[in-house]
Amino acid sequence: MINFVLLISRQGKVRLTKWYSPYTQKERTKVIRELSGLILTRGPKLCNFVEWRGYKVVYRRYASLYFCMCIDADDNELEVLEIIHHFVEILDRYFGSVCELDLIFNFHKAYYILDEILIAGELQESSKKNVARLIAAQDSLVEAAKEEASSISNIIAQATK
Amino acid sequence: MDTVEKIVEDFASDIAMSPFSSGTRLRDMIRAIRACKTAAEERAVVRRECAAIRTAISENEPELRHRNMAKLMFIHMLGYPTHFAQMECLKLIAAAGYPEKRVGYLGLMLLLDERQEVLMLVTNSLKQDLNHPNQFIVGLALCALGNICSAEMARDLSPEVERLMRSREVNTKKKAALCSIRIVRKVPDLAENFMALAASLLKEKHHGVLISAIQLCTELCKASKDALEYLRKNCIEGLVRILRDVSNSSYAPEYDVSGIADPFLHIRVLKLMRILGQGDADCSEYMNDILAQVATKTESNKNAGNAILYECVQTIMGIEATSGLRVLAINILGRFLSNRDNNIRYVALNMLMRAIAVDVLAVQRHRTTILECVKDADASIRKRALELVFLLVNDTNVEPLTKELIDYLSIADPDFKGDLTAKICSIVEKFSQEKLWYLDQMIKVLSLAGNHVKDDVCHALIVVLSNASELQGYSVRSLYKALQAYGKQGSLVRVAVWCIGEYGEMLVNNVGMLDGEEPVTVTESGAVDAVEIALNCHSADATTGAMCLVALLKLSSRFPSTSERVKQIVARNKENVVLELQQRSIEFSSIIQRHQSIRSSLLERMPVLDEASYLVKRATATQATISADKLAPTVAPGGLKLPNGVAKPTSAPLADLLDLSSDGAPASTTTSTTTSNGFLQDLLGIGGVSTATTGVPSIASTDILMDLLSIGSSPSQNGTPGQAESKPVHAVPEAIDLLGSLSSTTSVSAETKPTHLVSQDMDLLDGLSSSTSVSGLEKTVHPSITAFQSATLKITFDFKRQPGNPRETTIHATFTNLTSSTYTDFIFQAAVPKFIQLKLDPASGNTVPANGNGSVTQGLNVTNNQQGQKPLAMRIRMSYKVNGEDRLEQGQVSNFPSGL
C-alpha cells in the first residue's frame, strides 16, 4: 500500500501531503525533512527508489516538483512510478499543462484529484478519462450551487433596489 | 446607490462561496505568504490570518467557514498548528450543500487523523452521508472513511459500506470496496463479511471496480485464512479470465499506458494470484499458462511493461510453478540485471533476493554482475547488491568475495563504508574456517575502515585472539604494523593497543613466528612509543585513552626497563578533565611507584576470555547469527556452565581443558609412570592394588560410595609409611613446614569451602557429562585442569584413575614456560593435607625451554583417604633459575575434578 504521498519543490517546500498511515504532526514534519534531504540531493541518473526506515520511497521529478510515494518493501516500485505518472497526467489535463503555481493556488483541486485516484493508499481508477469526468461532474455541482447562490443574491439585489 | 450596490455585490460574491476563484481572499493570503522574504514575516502573516479565523469561528459565521477552512489547510501544509479549527470541519460536513461538504471532508482528512477524539463526533454525519441519494456525497463520505477511519468507526459503519458495495453506481462500488480495505485492516474480524461481496465484484467489467475488488481480495487473504480458502475456491477462474482478457485486449485508449492495456490491472491480478497460488499446487497449475503468456508476450522496452514483468516474475517465484516457468522467470531476471536503466537493475537485484529461496544456483551465476553493483554510483543499488552478496556467501566462495569487498572498502563512498564494513565483518565472522584467515581479514578491515567497525566486533576479535594462543604473536605484530600505517582508525587503535599491552613481549621477541612471516624489529621502547602515539592522537576518545593507559601499565611490568618512561607518560594524565583517565593515571602511577612487589602479579596477562559464553551473550544481545561451532570449534556445547575457577580466576577455562584432553596425554601417563618408577613405587603400586575395593564402576555418585569407601579405608593406611619416605626424595626440608602449616589451614578451609567446591565440580561434570558417559564403566576419565597459571608459567594436570584402587589417582603434570627465557634447575614441590597421600615421580627434566617450545612433565600419585568426604587439595611451589637468578612461585590447587 501507499503510506503517504508527498509533493516537494526543488527548494524543499511542501506542496501536497497525503497520509494514509497514521503519523503525528511531529512525525510528519520529521519525515518530510528526512526525505527532502534524501531525495533532493540525488543525482539525475540514479534510480528513482530510496530505501528508508524499512519502506521504499519512489519519487519522480517533474520540472521543479518531486512527486514521492512511500510504499511497503514488497510493493512494485515500477508500478508506483506509473501511478505517479498517472496522477501527473491527470493534473496536466485538468489544469492544461500544469505548473507548480497551479498546484500552489489550487492545492485543494490537486487533493480532490488525488482522492479520485487513491483511497486507503490503494489505486482506485486506472482510467484518466474517468477521473477527469468525475472531477468535472463535482466541479459543476459546486458551480451550480454558486449559480444558485448568486441568483439568490440577485433577488436580494433586486429587492433592495 | 452605487455604493450600496457595490456592497451587496461584495456580499453576494462572498456568500457565492467561491473562496478559490480569483480575487477572493484565499488567493490573497497565499500571495501574501509567498511574498514574505523571511520566516518571521511569514509567521506574522499566518498569525494575523489565524487570529482572524479564530474570531470568525467564535462569531460562528457560516458564510466564511469554507473559505477559512481552505486557508487553514494551506496554513496547515506550511506546518503551523490548526487544531482549533477541527470543529469547523464537522460543521461543514454537517451542512447541506455539496460545496461545503467537499471542503469539510477535505479539511477532515488533512487536519485530523484516526487518533483524534474529535473524529468520533463525525461518525453520525458520515452515516447520514453514506445514505445520501447523491452519489458524489456518498463518494466524499466513503473517501474520508477509507482514508482516516479508526477501528471503532470501522465497526460502526461497516454495514453501510457493505450495502454500498451492492450499489448500482460503479463509482460508489469501487470506493466502497477500497473503503472496506481500510475497515478490514482496522478490524480483521470483519473480513468474513466481505468475502462473498468481493468475489462477486470480480465479475464486473469496469476496470476501476475490478482493481478495487482485487485489492480488497488481497487484503482479505492477508487478514483471514478462511477468506483465503474461500477466494482460492471461488475466484481463481475469474482472475485468470480477467488477466487473459486484459492482456489479449486490442488497443484501448482509455486504459492504454505506452502501448499496454491497463498495466495497473495486470499487476493487481498478478499480485493476488501470487497470494492464492502460494503453497497450493492446484491453483498454481491453473495459472501456469496465463503466467507463461504474460511473461513471454509483454513488451519490455517501456517501464509499464517492465512493471508487469517484474510482478509476473515475483508471482512465478512465489507460487508452485513448473520448472519451465521458473527458467522463464530467471531469464527475465538476467535480462533485467543487464539493463542499462538503474530502476530496472534495482528491481532485478530486489527480485534476485527473493529468487535465492527458489534457485540459489541461478542467482550464483550472476555473482560477478552483482558484485559490480556493489560498486555502483547509486546508493540504493549498492545497498541492495550488498544485501544480496551477503546472502550469496557460502563456504566455497567466501574468500574471493571477501577479498573483493575488502578491496572495494578502500575506495568506497564514506557514507557507504559503515554498511559495507558491518557486512564484511559479519561475513568474516560467520564463514571463517580458520582463525588465521579471520584475523587477517579483521586486521585488514580495521586498517581500512576502523572508524566504522562496531565495538562488539572488536570485542569478538579480542575474545578470539585471547583464545588463539598460537596466533597471539603473529596478531600483535600484524596489528603493530597496521597501527604504524593506519593510526587514525579508532577501532584498529583500540585492538592494537590492547594486544600490545597483553602480548608486548611477543612483539619484541618475535615469539611464535608463523611460516613465511616477516620478522619485525621492535624494541621495548618501540612498543611503548606506539602506545604513546596512540594515546596522544586519540586523546579525545576516553575509551581509547583508558585502554592506552592500561596497556602502558602492563608494558611497564613486561619491560621493567621502560618503567620510568611509562611512569612519566601516565603521570601526564593526572590532570585530565575526563574523570576516568585522571583516576587511572593517578592509580597507575602509584602502582608503578610504590607497589613494585605486587606489580607483576597484578599485571599478569588477562585470563583467557570465555569464547562460548561471550558468543551466546552477544548473540542474544544483537541477535546476530554467529555460529558458535564455526568460530570456536574447540568449545563443546554445555561448556557455558563452567565457572572460571573459584580459588584462582586465572585457571582453567574450558577451551584449555579440551585442548589438552584431545592431545591424548592422559593415556601416555601410565606408561611413563610405571617405567620410570623406582622400586619403592612398585611396592606402593602393589599396595595400592591390594587395597582396592573391587570393581567400583562409577565414582560420581559419592553418597552411595561413601559406605564402601569407609570400609576400605583402613587397609590403605599400609601404604602411608612408604609414601612418607618418598617425599624427602624431592622435597626440600621446607616442604615439610609447608605441609605442617597446610594441614591446619586446609582443615579450616575444608569446612568452610565444601559447598563451594562441590557445586563448582558438579557444574564441571554437567558440562562434560557427554564425554564422561562415553568413557565407559571401567575407568572414569577426568578432564585435565590448569592447576596454575601466571604470566610466566603454566601447569596443567591430567588425571588417570588406578583401575584397582578408586582412591588413588595418577596425576600427570605438565610445566610450560610462557616467557622468552629458559628456566634452569626447575624443581616442583607439592604438599597435601594429612588425609591425602602424595608420591612424586622424578621429573622428565629440570630445564623448561622458553616460549612454550616443549615442556617438562612429572608424575604424581595421590591417594585420597577421605574420598567423597573431602576433595583433593594441594599446595605447590616451583623454584627455578632464570639467567642464574633464583625465582620462586607458589600457589594452591583446589579446582580438582570432583570424585578424586
From TrEMBL, chain A:
One of its GO terms (biological process) is intracellular protein transport. It comes from the Eukaryota. The keyword Transmembrane helix does not apply. Keywords: Cytoplasmic vesicle, Golgi apparatus, Membrane, Protein transport, Transport. GO terms for molecular function: clathrin adaptor activity. Belongs to the adaptor complexes small subunit family. This is AP complex subunit sigma. It comes from Panicum miliaceum (Proso millet).
From TrEMBL, chain B:
It is found in: Cytoplasmic vesicle, Clathrin-coated vesicle membrane; Golgi apparatus. One of its GO terms (cellular component) is AP-1 adaptor complex. Signal peptide: none annotated. It is a peripheral membrane protein. InterPro entries: Adaptor_Complx_Large_Subunit, AP1_complex_gsu, ARM-like, ARM-type_fold, Clathrin/coatomer_adapt-like_N, Clathrin_a/b/g-adaptin_app_Ig, Clathrin_app_Ig-like_sf, GAE_dom. Residues 780-897 form the GAE domain. Transmembrane segments: none annotated. Its main location: membrane. GO terms for biological process: intracellular protein transport; vesicle-mediated transport. Gene3D superfamilies: 2.60.40.1230, Leucine-rich Repeat Variant. Keywords: Cytoplasmic vesicle, Golgi apparatus, Membrane, Protein transport, Transport. Subunit of clathrin-associated adaptor protein complex 1 that plays a role in protein sorting at the trans-Golgi network and early endosomes (TGN/EE). The AP complexes mediate both the recruitment of clathrin to membranes and the recognition of sorting signals within the cytosolic tails of transmembrane cargo molecules. Belongs to the adaptor complexes large subunit family. This is AP-1 complex subunit gamma. It comes from Panicum hallii var. hallii.
